[in-house]
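Structure ticket #2291
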Amino acid sequence: MAYRSEKDSETELEYYKYKYYNELKKGRPKVKFSDLAYRCPYCPGKSKQDYLFKELLQHASAVITSRSRSTKEKARHLALERYMRKYLDVKVHSELATKTECSKPHGDQGFVYPWKGIIANIKTEWKDGKHVGESGTRLREELSRKGFNPVRVHPIWNRLGHSGFAIAEFKSDWTGFNNAMSMEKSFEVDHCGKRDYYTAKNLGDKLFGWMAHKDDYDSNGPIGVYLRKSADVKTISGKEAEDQRKASTLVSNLTNTLEVQSLHLKQIENEYQETSASLNKLIGQKEDKLKAYNEEMKKMQQNTRYHLEKIFLEHEKVTLHLEAQKKRLEQHEKQLQQREAQNETDRIKLHDEKKMNERAAVEQKKADENFLKLAEEQKKEKEKLHRKTIELEKKLDAKQALELEVERMRGALQVMKHMGDDGDFEMKKKMDLIIEDLNEKVEELDHMEQLNQALIIKERKTNDEVQEARKELIAVCIPFLTREVLAL
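Resolution: structure written out below.
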């Protein structure tokens, strides 16, 4: 992720650099006000401060190497530095042209890419049968102290050990190019450049250095071998064109990605709104059905309570009547026993009345048992009805979920029909699978609907049978008890 972020930052830097560079080439903003007066157009506090040419270059370099400056600020000053060196510093370019071996301008020169520098005349000594020399880390630190900032330095080795050469690698962006060029110019100023290295009769202990060019890349020595393995040759104009293409491609890809994401987001929003509306509708239907069910259950409970209270009052009435009759008979029995002149007929009649009273008590006990049995059966039927209701609710929920799944699959099928290509076999295959799955879901939904209707009809039929049985039991028990009581 860090590598990708660094690449994105470099791409953004190059994009803005070329943008501001093109603006400077068109003459806006203005940089040169006279042969000795130059101004930085990008620093508000210094917009009216005059610089010498070299001072303005130093100012631009300081901003470029600063860690506290933003990407846009660095890009502006990179563009300013490049513009000044290419279009304003005629004298410097003429001197540089006389010192370099290649007479072509930078735009047509071949440079080793990623940018690399060559360090020569590294001091070595013979030790343990081979040449040893200064490490790449120390060379990198030494170059960094001078402000060239190489990424790493690789000493070049051969069969005898350290060859006395090293390759300094720089960043692959234009900052790295500027650092490599600065290193080359610094060595040239000290008369330790490439030309000096190959023409000097006595190299001494000084380090020589220059930026790697095409002739170094094509050389037959260890330097050429190393460069051909790890790098390529590019011209400045070619690198600029390549960066421009990459920037254009990046902008185009980002634009296309944004459009695709916007369309996808809009499609998701539409699907969400449709699903939300369908879900709200189903929730409303479920709440209405639940409300109707609760009202029906409340009504059934009220009716059941009313019938039970009525039976209980009738039972209490018969019980009180039997108790009063029993007391009356017991009192009459005492009276008969007190009578000395009691005939056989009265005793038989009293005996028969006692038998009838006992039978009435037995019948009352049976009626009590039947009453309790009826109440228990009603309780069981009520529980059974409640379980069936719960089962119907579950099946209703499953049915609604299946309806949602069918609607979702139909929506997906419509989207695939609009997005699919007639020549895309994979898309047709996916559509066939969705259609087959959709048909199975529809058949399952029809089957569940039939099963649901069958359960509802069965429940109603069972409930009607229970109610009829309860009415018949009440109709049979109460008149019988009433007749027995009246007979007593």
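Closing remark: Strands lie at 110-113, 116-120, 124-127, 130-133, 152-158, 161-169, 208-211, 232-235.
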